[in-house]
Every structure is written in C-alpha cells, then in structure tokens.
Amino acid sequence: MYSISVSECDNVSTRIAGGTCCRVRRTMQCFGFHEAECDGCGSDEEGRTVGELLLPQYALATGGLARDHRPLITFPDNNNFHVVTASEYRRLLLYLTSVPSLLEAEMGFHIIIDRRKDRWNSVKAVLLRISEFFPGIIHTVFVLRPASFLQKALSEVSSKLFKEEFRFRVIVCSSVEELYEHFDRSQLTPDLGGELQYSHAEWIQQRIALEKFSTLMKEISTKLDEFMHEIVDCDMGNDPTQTKELLDCQESRYKSLKAELSSATSEGEELLSSMRTPHLTYNIISHVAAVER
C-alpha cells in the first residue's frame, strides 16, 4: 500500500519549513523521487536534487486554480529564494509544472509572487528568473508587493517602469483582497487569505507515493516490452524437447509478469483510495489524476 507516513525511513520528521529536514530528504531518495531533466540543468553535483529543492518551499504547486481554471504556481514569502541557483530553479520549475494534468498545463499558468515582507529587489529577482526560463505558458503574474512604507513607495515607482520589460502580463497587488477578482478563496492557501488547507508535508508524502508507483509501473512496462520482443524474435528450432522447454520458460515468465502487473494494479487502486479519503484537501486532486493516467 502506498499511503506513506513521514515516519518511514528513519522515523522521518515532518518539519518541512526552512529546508532542514534531512530525514525527509532521505525518504524522498529512498522512494525514487524522479529528477527533472532539461538542457543546461547540469548533473546532480551541480546543485540540489528535486527532492531537496521541494523541502524549503521556494515555489509551490498547491493544486489551486484561477477562476479561468488555469493552474497556479506560488512563490511564497519565505525570504529564501535568493539561495536558489539558476540550474536548481530550472530543475524545480520543471518538476512543479509537471504536477497539474496535461490539459491544465496546456492552458498555461498563473503565478503569484508574495513578497509582502521582503524588498522590491526580491520581486525583480524572481521576475527576471521567470522571464529567463519557465517551462510552460505564463498567463499572468500577480505580485503582492512589499508592505513596508519605503518599499511600497519604491514599488509604486518601479512597477510602472518594469511592466513592459516582460513578455507576460504583470499585475501588482497592494493586498491579498485584490487577488480575489481572479481566484476564489477556496483555491488560495491561508497565507493568501484563502481557505485551501494545503499541507506541504502531506503533499510531499503523496508525491513520494506517486513517484514510487510511477517507478514501479515503468519497470513493469520495460519488462513487458522486453518479453514481447523476445517472443517475436524467438527461434523455436526443430527439436521438440528444446521447443517445449522454451515454451515452458516463456509461460513461467508470462505468469510472473502477470502477477507483478496484477499486484501493481491493486497497489494503484489502494493509492487512489488513500488519496480520495474525505480528510484530504483539494491539492490532492492533481495527484489522483496522475495515478489514473
């Protein structure tokens, strides 16, 4: 069964914020968290893995949708984005944009950059990163600007100057209430004044389970392909004894593969069942869709 608790693999801690949870990191490696791949991302030695980059919440895919049903990527106000390298940013965004369904992703994304407790330079840094690389269509970027008096004054001047610099639409918001024109509160997390009870620890657990199941299905698919090619290319020969031995061997492998597929199907059904339990929030729906695919 794939309803995994974060107590697995060395009694994993659920303390996610801040990126200090090395035990969760080991769990993600244990369950084969796949790496996003792209030209220029570099090798594992040139930055942190996807699993390590998900922990500090540099960016989130909570499952929330805008009123036009486009998926949302959020850059929360955690004052830590500056430590992410260009290759790590690409790796992280490639993974997060793969979370929504293909249909949703093809519609394009909305982005919320929350920098209410930060400086205006931080806003510009994120916008520049997004303009340099984003693995999908950007519909609108909403910026929750810095709230301090000085930073607010700077943003009022700067925002008028930089909007034309980017190929995507930028809307600067003075408060979270301005987001509600574009997002229902049920699709926004509490830090944005919404009602979506997003749990990052729960999200990671579900992604671990999904990645493990995905890896299992890929392995079975590879075995089935190899088996079918062997049957097609098989030379039965003219010796009845050898032919019978070969057929017996193929039958044994067929039964073994059939049992593996049946077991994986049952595990997939258990995973779907665990994700559909009433206590889980909306952000799990994209995970359910991924299992069904």
Summarize this, please?
With 293 residues, the chain is an alpha/beta fold.
What would your notes on this structure say?
Helix 8 (200-233) runs antiparallel to helix 9 (240-275). This protein has two domains: 50-196, CRAL-TRIO lipid binding domain (Phosphatidylinositol Transfer Protein Sec14p, 3-Layer(aba) Sandwich), CATH 3.40.525.10; 202-290. It has ten helices and four strands; from the N terminus they run H-H-H-E-H-H-E-H-E-H-E-H-H-H. Strand 3 (138-144), helix 7 (149-162) and strand 4 (169-173) form a beta-alpha-beta unit. Helices cover 48% and strands 8% of the residues. The longest helix is centred in the last third of the chain and has 36 residues, at 240-275. It is of the alpha/beta class. The two termini are 18 Å apart. Strands 1-2-3-4 form a four-stranded parallel β-sheet.
Q: Which secondary-structure class do the elements indicate?
A: alpha/beta
pLDDT averaged over residues: 78
* CATH T-level topology of the largest domain: Phosphatidylinositol Transfer Protein Sec14p
SSE arrangement, N to C: HHHEHHEHEHEHHH
Text of the CATH class of the largest domain: Alpha Beta
Low-pLDDT runs of 5+ residues are 1-32, 36-45
Q: CATH superfamily assignment of the largest domain?
A: CRAL-TRIO lipid binding domain
Shape: elongated
CATH architecture of the largest domain: 3-Layer(aba) Sandwich
Strand order of the largest sheet: 1-2-3-4
How many structural domains? 2
Please give the largest β-sheet: 4 strands, parallel
Calculate the terminal CA-CA distance, rounded to whole Å.
18 Å
Protein name: Guanine nucleotide exchange factor DBS
Pfam families: CRAL_TRIO_2
Domain CRAL-TRIO: 42-200
Organism: Danaus plexippus plexippus
